[in-house]
Amino acid sequence: MAAARGGVVARPGLFERLGTSARVTVVSAPAGSGKTILLRSWFAAAGLSDRAAWVQVGHEERNPQRFWLSVADALRQTTPGAALVRALTAAPELDGWAIVERLLKDLAPLEDRIWLVLDDVHELDSAETRRQLELLLMRAPPDLRFAVVTRHDLRLGLHRVRLEGELTEVRATDLEFSVAEARELFAAAGVELPESTVAVLHERTEGWAAGLRLAALSLAGHPDPDRFTEDFSGTERTVAEYLMAEVLERQSDHVRRLLLRTSILRRVSGELADALTGGRDGEWVLRQLEEANAFVVALDARRSWFRYHHLFADLLHQELRRSEPDEVTALHLTAATWFAEHGHPVEAIWHAQSAQDWSLATRLLADHWPALRMSGQTATVHGFLASFPAQARAADPELAALVAADELARGAFEEAERFMGLAERGAASVPAGRRGRLQVLLGGFQLLLARQRGNLPGVIEAAERVQALAEAPDTAGLGFGEDLRALALINLGSTEFWADRLPEAERHLEQGVALARRIELPFLECSGLALLGGVEIFRSFARSEERSRQAIELARAHGWTDEPTVGIAYTMLANVLAWQARPEEAEPWIQRAERTVKAEAEPAAAIAVNYARGRVELLRGRNDAALAAFRAGERLDALLANSHLLATRTRAFVLQALVGLGDIERAELTLAALHEQDRDSGEVRVATAGLRLAQHDPYAAAAVLAPVLDGSTPPAWSAWLIEAFLLEAIARDALGDPAASGEALERALDAAETDLMVFPFLIHPARDLLERHAQDRTKHAALIAEILDALAGNRPAPPADAPPLLEPLTDTEVRVLRYLPTNLSAREIGDELYVSANTVKTHIRNVYVKLGTHKRTEAVERARALGLLAPSGRRR
Length: 876
Hints:
Elements: E1 3-4, E2 8-9, H1 12-19, E3 24-28, H2 35-45, E4 52-56, H3 64-76, H4 79-82, H5 96-107, E5 114-119, H6 127-139, E6 144-150, H7 158-163, E7 167-171, H8 172-175, H9 179-188, H10 195-205, H11 209-219, H12 225-231, H13 236-248, H14 253-261, E8 268-269, H15 270-277, H16 282-291, E9 296-298, E10 305-308, H17 310-323, H18 328-341, H19 345-354, H20 358-374, H21 378-387, H22 390-395, H23 397-409, H24 413-425, H25 432-452, H26 456-471, H27 481-498, H28 502-518, H29 522-536, H30 541-558, H31 564-579, H32 583-596, H33 603-620, H34 623-637, H35 647-661, H36 664-673, H37 676-679, H38 682-694, H39 698-709, H40 719-734, H41 738-753, H42 759-763, H43 767-775, H44 781-791, H45 811-817, H46 826-833, H47 837-851, H48 856-865
Helix pairs in contact: 3-5, 5-6, 9-10, 11-13, 15-16, 18-19, 19-20, 20-21, 21-23, 23-24, 23-25, 25-26, 25-27, 26-27, 27-28, 27-29, 28-29, 29-30, 29-31, 30-31, 31-32, 31-33, 32-33, 33-34, 33-35, 34-35, 35-36, 35-38, 38-39, 38-40, 39-40, 40-41, 43-44, 45-47, 46-47, 47-48
C-alpha cells in the first residue's frame, strides 16, 4: 500500500469499487470522512485526472445559471469533453433547462468515458436546479459517469437509478479506515507507533478519516504519545477540541492569527490573507499548511487560492468570535474592500452584507449592477436584494432603484413602479457624489420599462437621459457609462425598429453593435445584429440573411441558441424564406423563434413571429391557421404604446386569410371595421383588391389599386408593390386589356427578381397569365419558370428534414416533454414539477396532438427530429 504526497493513503478496495462502479456514484458521509480526498486520489492513481470534470458547489454555484455554467466549463476541460461540449457564456436570461438539453445534445455522441464530480452538492439549495440535475442524471449517455459528493442524502430521484442497477453508494461506513490503512496513514505522516497503539486509535476514531488525520498531525513530535492516545477519543467533539488545542494552538502566534482572521472567508489567497493580518508571507504560510495536509486545500493548479476544511473553518470562525468578537465586522469590511478592488464584486457584496454594512453593500451592488446583469447573474442580484432588511430596501433610494429593476426583470410591473417611485422621491437625499450614479440607474430602469411597453417617446427620452448622464463630467468615471450607453443604443434602436422608424433604428443599432463589440458585451452585440437583420429585410434579403446568421453564429458560439434575443434573428431568417416561398425551409426557424420569444416579455418580437407564422401558413393554404396567427399578432399589438411596424400589414393579411377561407362576408365586415387611415393604406388597398377579385369585380379591384400604383398612396414596403402590380395584371387581363396586363405583370416580375420574392405569385396564382407572358419577350423567363414549378409543387425539397409542428408547444409542455424520454410515470413527472398527475396527462395529450403522434415513444422521436430534444445518447 503506497501513500501519496501529504500523507494521502491509497485505498485499493475502494479504488476497485469506484473503477467498476455504475453510472451514478453517490459518496454520502459527514464532514471529515475523506470523500473528496478519496475521489481525487483514485483519479490520480488511475490516470483519469484529464477525464474528471470537477465542480465544487460553493456559494456562487447556488445560482442556477452559475451552477450549469460551471458544469459546462468543467466538462469542456476534460479531454473527451473539449471536442464535444460547446462554449457557453453567461447571459441575462440563460435558462437551466435549456443548458441541460444543450449538454445532452453535445454529449450524445460521447464514446470516451467522462466523470462529472459534483462536490458538496448539498450546498445546491435550488429545488429547480436539483430537478434539472435529476433530468441530466436520467438522460445522460452511458459514458458520462456521475460522482455526487454530499454530506447528506438529497432528493434527486436516485431511487429510479437504483432500480435500474445504475447506482453505486459509498457511505460513511465504507469510508472508515481499516487498521492497516490507519497504520499506513501514520507512517506517511512520519509517526511510528506500536501495533497496539494504532489499534486503540483506530477503535476510538471508528476509522473516521478526520480523527485519524488529526491524531497523525498531533502525534508528530508529541512528547508523550501514550498519554495522547489515552486521552484521545476521536469523536467530532474531541476532534474540535484537538483542532483548537493541537493544530491551532501549536502554531506560532503569526500563523494562528492568520488562520483565525481569514476564517471569515470562503476562499483565501496569500495577498488577501496579508490584507487581513497586516503580514507579508500569507501565501507561503498557506502553502506550508496545505503541504502538511493541515486541513487546508488548494483550489487551483497554481496553488494561489485555498479553502479550509469545512469543519476546521467552522471551528476557526467560532474561535474568532469567542476570542476577538469586536474584530469580525472589521474583517468582513476589509475583505469587502479587497474583493471590490480586485474585481470580485459578488464576494465583496457578500462580505459587506455579512458586516451588516447595508450602505456599503448597496453602493457595491449599484456600482456593479450593469455588469452583473449583463453577465447573467440576475439570480445572484435577486438573492442579494432579498438579503437586505425591508426597511433598507424602502429607505435607501439607490437600493430602491435596484429593487425596481429586479422586479421589472421578474415581470412585477406594479412593484417595480412602486420602488421606482421611492427612488425618485428620495433622490435628493443621496450624497452629491452618488447622485449621478442614481440618476443613471433611474434612467436605465425607465429605458427598460419603456422598451418593454413599446413606448417610443419614453425610450427616446430615457435613452437620451442615460447617454447624457453617462457622458457628464460627474458620472463619466463611474465605470459603467459605456455599458449603459450600449444598452441604451440597442434598446432605442429596437423600439425605433418596431415603431417603423427604420433610418433612426439602423443608425442607433449600428452604433450600439460597434460599442458592444468594442467593450466586449457579446449579448448586446447579438441582440443588435438580430435587429439589424430586420432593418435589412426591407432593402435586401441577402443582407438581412447575412446579419441574421451573424447573430445566430454569435449566439451559437456563446451557447445562447435558446435565448429570446436570438429568436429575433430566427424570425427574420424565417421571414426571408417565407417571402421567397420556401415554407419548409422557414419552418424550423419559426419553430425556434416560437420556442425562444416570450410574448409576455417581448410582445413586439412576438408579433413578428406570428407574422412569419401566418405567412407560411398562407403559403401552405392553411388559411385558418394563418388567420389565428395574424389575430394573435393583433392582440399583442394592443399591449404596445406605439403601433407596431407590422400592424397595418397584419390587418391586410387578415383580409387575405379570410378571402382564402372563402369567408367573403366576414372579410367585408373586417374591412368596414378598420379605421379610415388603415383602409386607405397601400397594404390594405392591395388586400382589398384581392377581395374584389374574389367577388369577380375586376373594375373595383383596379380602382382600389390606382392610388397605390400611381404613388399617391404607396405601401410602406416595396414588396407590396409586387402584389399590387400582380393583382393589377390579373384585373386588366379579366377586363380584356392584355397590353396593360402584360405591362403590370412585367413590373411585378421586375420588382420580384432581385430578391426572388415569389410569395405574392403563390398567394394569387395566375398560371395562365404567367405561361402566356413567358411566351412574350420577357427578361424574367427563369423567374417565371421557378414560380410555375412552385405552383405545381415541383420545387426541390428543403435541406431541413423534419415536418413542422402543428402548433407551438407552451413552456409547460416543453418542460413535460423533457421528461418523456425517461421512464417516469405521469404521477412521478408531476412530483418533479409540483403539479398533479392529471395536469401532466393533459400536457402530454397536448404534446401528442401538436407533434402529430399517438404514443410516448413516437412523441420522443418526433421531438428529437424537430430538435426539441437531444438525440438519444444510449447506444442500442
